[in-house]
Amino acid sequence: MTKEEKTQLYSLLKTVSDSLYGHKSPDFPDEIPIFEDDMVQVQAETTETQNTASTNAAQSESVSSAGGNSATSTIDNISSKIRECKRCQLCASRKQTVPGMGVEKPFVLVIGEGPGEEEDKQGLPFVGPAGQLLDKMLAAIQLYRNKNCYIANIVKCRPPMNRNPMPEEADACRPFLDAQIAALKPKAILCAGSVAVKNLFHINDGVMKLHGQVLDYKGIPVVTTWHPSALLRAPENKRPAWEDLKIFKSELLKLDPNYDK
Ligand code: URA
Predict the structure, then answer these.
(1) Domain count, the chain
(2) 43/29 Cα distance (integer angstroms)
(3) What is the Cα–Cα distance from 158 to 98, expressed in whole angstroms?
(4) Does 186 contact ligand 1 (Cβ within 6 A)?
């Protein structure tokens, strides 16, 4: 069985098990176990990639040098680099990459987890059912992707069966997120869900512990709330999510008292 087939089977069994339990089954952790033979296969699969793209460090350099250096790379340059990316195994199963979308000088950067099925089809972030809820959450605090936000993800390619990105996938994609933050210079960041906050800060605490707190990422205030997909699954969290958004809005008003006008 290939790694891809194992991953798909695991995701299927996890979905069935989670729904039988009525909550996350302890038998199937979010993080998919990696077996030794998988690693050998992943290495073989990525050899071709590595031949064309050299080391991560060099790749990182090529991302940041897309427009001279990370501070001067335009978001379009970064998106072009993402579109040709083959840094990790997700390139094999994606239909297309999803670099991100929004305005060039956003007030707020929203960070999600990774593209789902609809995003993979359209090449745009948060355009499925979760995206519709995200747009409503943002509009409730006067944020709009075509006016004052940019929406990006931890990984820019769809993980098969919408599983969480694996650490090596998030790591491979990280230079793109770093380059996006450097180019966009958002005044504040909203993390949608645990995957976003854990990966942004490289920490183990997720949304249950951190939601509503104002964290600091290199001088940028960051608030975390539930991922809209999680809210669609567990609507009882919409009320605390609204409290998080109000906290985020009060931070935004400190940065610009007129942003909501
Ligand atoms: N979920 C995400 O985290 N990101 C998307 O772009 C879509 C769904």
Answers:
(1) 1
(2) 24
(3) 8
(4) no
Q: CB of 153 closer than 6 A to ligand 1?
A: yes
Among 184, 171, 170, CA closest to 220: 184
For the CA of 124, the closest atom of ligand 1 is 6
Cβ of 112 less than 6 Å from ligand 1: yes
Domain range spanning residue 137?
51-255
Q: Measured between alpha carbons, how far is 76 from 85 in angstroms, rounded to an integer?
A: 14
pLDDT digits (tens, 9 = 90+) for 167-219: 999 999 999 999 999 999 999 999 999 999 999 999 999 999 999 999 999 99
Contacts of residue 69, defined as CB under 8 A and 6 or more positions apart, other chains included, come to none
Provide the CATH number for the domain around residue 210. 3.40.470.10
pTM: 0.76
Single out the residue of 153, 169, 32 nearest to residue 98, CA to CA: 153
Answer yes or no: is 180 within a domain: yes
User: What would the two tokens of residue 213 be?
Assistant: 């707190």
